[in-house]
Amino acid sequence: MEWLFRSEFDALTTAALWSIAAVLVTTLILFVYTMGLRLATIAANRKRARFIRTWRDVFAEAMLSETAARNFKLPKVRRSDRTDLLEEWNRARSIVDGSAADNLVTLGRRAGVPELALRLLHKRRVQPRILAAQTFGHLRDRERRDEIRQLLNHDNTALSITAAVALVEIDPDFAVPIVVPMIETRRDWPKNRVANMLREAGSGRVSEPMYRAIRSATNESKTYLLQFARLVEPEVLDALIDDLIRSSNDPGVLNAALKLVSGVRGVPRIAALTQHEAWFVRMQSAKVLGRVGQQEHLSLLESLLDDKEWWVRYRAAQAISSLPFLGPNQLRQIRERQDDRFACDILQQSFAEVGIA
Amino acid sequence: MTLQDVVISGQWVFLAYFVGINAGYLMQNVIAAFGIRRYLQTAEQYEAESVFSSLDIPISLVVPAFNESASIITSVKAMLQLEYPQYELIVVNDGSTDDTLEKLVDEFGMREFPEAYRARVPCEPVRGIYKSTRQGNLRVVDKENGGSKADASNAGINVARYPLVCVVDADSILQPDALRRVVRPFLEDPTTVAVGGTVRISNGCTVRQGFLEKVGLPTNFLALVQVVEYLRAFLFGRMGWSPINGLLIISGAFGLFHKETLVEAGGYNPKAVGEDMELVLRLHRLMKSKGKPYRITFVPDPVCWTDAPESIKDLKSQRVRWQNGLGQALMLNKSLITNSRGGAVSWVAIPFYIIFELFGPIVEVAGYLFIITCAIMGWIAWPQALVFLGLAIGLGVLLSTSAIMLEELSFHMYPRFKQLAVLYLIAIVENFGFRQLTAIWRFQGLMRWFGGREHKWETLTRSSNLADEA
Known about the structure:
The complex is a heterodimer. Chain A is an all-alpha fold. Chain A is 73% helix and 0% strand. Chain A has helices at 7-64, 66-71, 82-94, 98-110, 113-121, 126-139, 145-150, 157-170, 172-183, 191-201, 203-216, 219-225, 234-247, 251-258, 267-273, 279-292, 298-303, 310-322, 328-336, 341-353. Chain B has a domain at 21-49 and 171-355: Spore Coat Polysaccharide Biosynthesis Protein SpsA, Chain A (Alpha-Beta Complex). Chain B is built from 15 helices and 12 strands. In chain B, helix 8 crosses helix 9 (275-290), helix 10 (312-332) crosses helix 11 and helix 13 (382-410) runs antiparallel to helix 14.
């Protein structure tokens, strides 16, 4: 068995042994790290819970009374509690409005929230800068407006959208004309946050820049921006939608615009769109006619009942069932006069949905 | 070539294999650690802003059920209480031979409904569609038994009305905010076509009215080992592939899909043993053939809890099936391997799966046999054999330890020190017998794939987590 101890075999065994040693050391390091992490988490959670308990009481008092906000004796904030204070203050501030929000701003200024946020605003890491931008937004701190504006074009989505929201909070008249045109290019901004931001700014401010942004956008961008068009003033929306439906033949734009139709403007054009080559445009047209259609549109809707797309048939049948001038007997007559199996099936389904046998 | 050369070459081959597979796993660990960190950094921000709005995407929740009479009512009641603004629940009764359908009809006031059904993806004939008179968003599809979950899921996809379809096992326990979490990639990136979420083991947990009340560890050894296995599989097995768009599996227990893409791909393959993996591979293939950007991604949040088999028989059956399914899924989508535009899927993920996951059991079983035979025959000394076995075991412990660390860094679902200690103990103990046993089962699964046997619905013995409450 001497060959076992030849150099190449020894090398193999030695390599394996060293690997075991490395694996054992790494495993041990990971184990100690994980246990340490657990201990640190427990300690931090306890400390944080105590801190939050104390400050929530303070915030609650301040929200209810301006006097309390101005005169309440504030608990001491240790260096290690600063981020917790900012997070908690922001949490409290984000759920209130009106005088309660003003009181919290007063209290925040007394507690040194702006100074703490300023330190974070110039950090290298993104997370503290997000917290800082959010804080200045909630403080409505106009002194920081330009610094926050610089963050709008940051590559990091969370930082960029937080800066946009903060800027709108600080100075909506200044921010909205800047932020709205950016929505088209910053597709990475979460739509919910964009919608909430525009809602907060108010339809009066949003209407004009949004109208201009949509009018000047490419068809693809129009489709995207129209998702937020509900947040403009109703009369501006009606005019915009009417204009788009009359002037555009792009299926995406028509689809997005038809979803927003609320009144009877442009009905003749909508009726014509029931014959559009894109099935989703036909489907949306049928839906709209179900809401605003008249007697003369019934035959158009009936013609869609044997469309080759199931959704078009379904929406047409639903539209017929919802026409206000048709009673159950007239609906049954419509069903009886269909000689296409698809049309009969889909009418039967949609009638059953509204309880007509 | 002398015996000595064979022995030495063999050792080098097995050592290289073990180093290769573990280097791959460790690389996934590193990617996963960064991915989870990045995800958690943005999660809080997302939470704060996740006010429901008209911009949320409606979801059709499809629940295939075959002989689920014991738990279906509790499951459906829980699924009807999920925190999501607009979703519908479609239970597909796949020709159950028990009273699954009758229970649903009685409990939710289901009435047969003349729905204009259209079969967009293939499945066995539908006998009837029922609509609840009490829950506007609940429908039940009663169909002929198709012999597989895939067939039943397809029927659900056919009646789904919303743009996203979430397929969930009837015995899955969902987190109340599961849909809100898993929909996030669709909101952030419109090219997303499928999203998976972390599935955890529910054995040992306290479940009340279909919802998880308290996280615990099982007392059954096999279930306990699977807790650690699932941590490895999801926290770095999935999370490691997701950032490079190389995810090949979305668990059948919980997956969210863009419906039109799912339909375009042809839905689930009823003939596939591992229908969940086969579908994801087919989605990759479809999207590559279209040449459009797409994402198949993963959220590390624990969104779904599932019952793990507690008996050797059930566990063996599951592992044999998984390995069989892996082979079949890769074979059915073999054109991905040679796709010049395949990216990370074709160049990294699939080769890794073929070498280390599919044929891994052969090398693993052969490796153990080789070392032990050499030692018994006196071709190598016992201490040297133990060094090699020790290395294999050490690497196994290291991987489990790193998975536990990722769990602690991210979600720390097991809050008690005792639980952490038990997980570490299992990370060591599982390497003495259990891993070798699963390698043998996987080897059997591979042989079954070579044999080309078909698969039917399997009824596993379940713990009583979801049994309908009186």
